[in-house]
Write a structure and sequence with these properties.
This protein has 22 helices and 19 strands. The chain is of the alpha/beta class. Among the domains are: 43 residues; 169 residues, Leucine-rich repeat, LRR (right-handed beta-alpha superhelix). It starts with 7 loop residues before the first helix and ends in a 15-residue tail after the last helix.
Length: 569
């Protein structure tokens, strides 16, 4: 059958298969009218996310397209206020009706980019008129889109922007009734008027979610603030309820919950309220991320109830001073597959150990910077025999105490962030002995730090040859361009030449990342050595997803669960 005459159901299945391949979806528009009409809604369901990947270079054109979709009344109003837009042009499709996902931060950044590249009749547009323009676009989105799937507000990744009062939009109920992914980030209460105004608008929108009984949300991404009046509402009896807790209770099947708080604000009251509400989601909750929250006995007692939890993240958290050791979590309470435990230095050592004992033998992926501790090493020796992915930070003489790693007989992925203070303790024999301890199951080795010199790397790879390890992927990450040179490549080539006549060394991919440097490999290394490496390694790439493992987890704008691992566990 000619592909031009496929029925729409077949075309839809093809487009769904190409969901993350925007260029291919765009090509589908060009086949014929049937393909075009079927494809356009998918291409325009989340257009702002697409342009953000291109540094907003296409943002002005996107905003211009949406301007064409404005009603004639709105166009005339904007023209009257001094905006240089056409009142006669119109779009080929009703693009606002296709929107399914809105990230307000991306929308506002796109509008800001459009402002900078557009001429007006007046020399400048004041803040009041800019807010009018923003209001017009959002009002169009909310009145014409056919129910949102995802809505994010308050994130600051691309800057700080003002938002309209969403609760005043007439089409709000229909738009958010079937919302499934919600991200609400309140701004820090730093006495800035703009932040207080934004928080007020977000708070009113939050209240609407409760009023409209939005109960189909499966992923809530929430960041709190210090202003209690913003976070709560009062009933007829003047009893205060935390809005986020009431929203959690409403849900029919919450699966993912991310909670970010400010460590400078000891907000135990809200945290306890949230965990009390999460008890209603014990059966459905599978992913839980906690950043900057305080643990007290109530929260710990709730945590062990999540019997279906598969992924737990605890970052930059602290403990209630009244929390005594007899209230610490008991070992092997959770049957989780992935556990991330980082930067929890505001907890005492024994509580950190207790948390690392929480998972049972089903744990397969562990990311932690708290491994240079004898009690933790004892846990790794016997409690987690099924780990296949380990990402950790090596401090001081940490390589000397890595005997336990030989017991991880299923380990296939190892990511090491080597601290600069290791250099004063590390010898060639230390790193060689560590290499001999690596389990024969290891397939992927990544080292994240430029302090790991070519000679140290060479000794590690020498031990891998001696141990007859068959590495498939080797990754190196450097924070600065000046720290990398071709000696690393010569060291790797020497490793590849150790056993050229057998199948011992099967390196399929070499990944070298250099901070935020955008230079190509050809700009970093001499042509001669580059050609030799490419001849010996099937894939040699600068793309290195493992780099920045530590800072990626600490920052607040992490968007996806599971970034600690490239494997499906």
């Amino acid at each position: 059958m000619n592909s031009s005459f496929l029925i729409s159901d077949c075309i839809i299945q093809i487009i769904k298969y190409l969901e993350n391949d925007v260029k291919s979806i765009y090509c589908c528009i060009l086949v014929n009218k049937a393909w075009s009409y079927t494809t356009i809604p998918y291409l325009w369901r989340n257009p702002f996310e697409i342009i953000s990947n291109e540094n907003f270079s296409k943002a002005p054109r996107l905003i211009q397209t949406y301007i064409l979709c404005l009603s004639e009344t709105d166009k005339l109003h904007l023209i009257y206020e001094g905006f240089n837009i056409s009142k006669t042009g119109s779009a080929f499709f009703d693009y606002p009706s296709y929107i399914k996902e809105i990230n307000c931060n991306l929308v506002n950044k796109s509008i800001s980019t459009w402002f900078k590249k557009t001429y007006f009749e007046h020399e400048s547009i004041n803040e009041e008129k800019e807010n009018l323009f923003i209001w017009k676009l959002y009002d169009m989105f909310f009145s014409r889109c056919n129910r949102l799937f995802s809505f994010k507000i308050g994130l600051k990744k691309y800057g700080s922007f003002n938002y309209p009062n969403f609760s005043s939009f007439f089409g709000l109920r229909q738009t958010i009734t079937d919302l499934q992914h919600l991200a609400i980030y309140f701004r820090p209460s730093d006495n800035e008027q703009i932040n207080e105004q934004i928080n007020e608008h977000i708070s009113k929108f939050f209240k609407k979610l409760l009023t409209f009984q939005c109960h189909n949300i499966y992923f809530i991404d929430y960041k709190s603030c210090a202003n209690r009046d913003i976070l709560v509402y009062y009933d007829e009896k003047n009893i205060a309820y935390f809005k986020i807790s009431e929203l959690i209770k409403l849900q029919h099947g919450l699966r993912l919950f991310r909670y970010l708080d400010d460590t400078s604000v000891l907000n135990f009251e809200e945290a306890s309220s949230i965990f009390g509400a999460l008890k209603n989601q014990i059966k459905s909750l599978t992913h839980l991320e906690l950043r900057g929250i305080g643990f007290n006995d109530k929260i710990i007692q709730c945590l062990k109830l999540f019997e279906n939890l598969k992924f737990l993240i605890i970052i930059n958290c602290y403990q209630d001073k009244l929390l005594t050791e007899d209230l610490f979590p008991e070992p092997e309470q959770l049957s989780i597959a992935k556990f991330v435990f980082l930067n929890n230095r505001h907890m005492n050592e024994n509580l950190q150990v207790a948390f690392l004992k929480l998972p049972n033998y089903n744990l397969k992926s562990l990311t932690t910077d708290f491994i240079d501790n004898k009690k933790v090493r004892d846990i790794l020796n016997y409690q987690f025999p099924n780990i296949i992915y380990l990402s950790t930070r090596i401090e001081k003489n940490g390589f000397v105490h890595m005997n336990w790693i030989s017991n991880l007989t299923k380990l296939s992925h190892l990511v090491l962030d080597v601290s600069f203070n290791v250099l004063g303790y590390l010898t060639y024999s230390h790193i060689y002995n560590f290499g001999l301890l690596l389990p024969s199951s290891l397939k992927v080795l990544h080292i994240d730090n430029e302090h790991f010199s070519p000679h140290i790397l060479g000794n590690l790879l020498k031990a891998c040859v001696e141990k007859k390890l068959s590495l498939e992927i080797l990754g190196l990450h450097f924070d600065y361009r000046s720290r990398i040179n071709e000696l690393y490549l010569y060291t790797i080539l020497e490793y590849l030449s150790k056993s050229p006549d057998d199948d011992l060394i099967k390196l399929k991919e070499l990944r070298i990342g250099v901070g935020l440097n955008k230079e190509s490999l050809e700009d970093i290394f001499p042509d001669k050595i580059l050609k030799i490496v490419k001849k010996n390694v099937p894939v040699f790439t600068k793309k290195n997803e493992y780099g920045y493992w530590y800072s990626n987890w600490i920052r607040d704008d992490c968007n996806k669960f599971g970034q600690d691992s490239l494997i499906d566990v």
